[in-house]
Design brief:
This protein has 147 residues and is an alpha+beta fold. The chain contains eight helices and four strands; from the N terminus they run βααβααβααβαα. The chain has a four-stranded antiparallel sheet, with helices on both faces. It starts with a strand and ends in an 8-residue tail after the last helix.
Length: 147
Amino acid sequence: MAIERTLALIKPDAMARKLEGKILDQILERGFRVVAMKKIKLDKYEAGCFYAVHRKTSFYDDLTTFMSSDEMIALVLEKENAITAWRDALGATDPAHAAEGTIRHTWGTAKNRNICHGSDCPDSAAYEIGFFFSGIEITRSNPEVSQ
């Protein structure tokens, strides 16, 4: 399998509950390499741009309000089959249906407050990583690129 990258977001609900350290521990314990990481707070417009695909849904306004409510941590994770591996680590979107031992089962409280985000396919991962990180932020953390 090829090495792959995915975007992970530790959402405002996790930050408010001070779970970022526990979630980062889970990321590392599951064998991901953190390629880039930053703390960020989106405004409502930026959250709307990120979730533009959901613009016509009934939950769009609540989602963008929530995602702009507080700081979060954006990460680029890397490993073999990273997209599927991260989504497996997260569990189902609804914590009530997430498998035991997954991040959402362990710390999620509701479907619309589900602790973390993960890209769902390679095209989404590429777009989402580019939304939060410039190329130089990722290049600087890549040991394969000579100084």
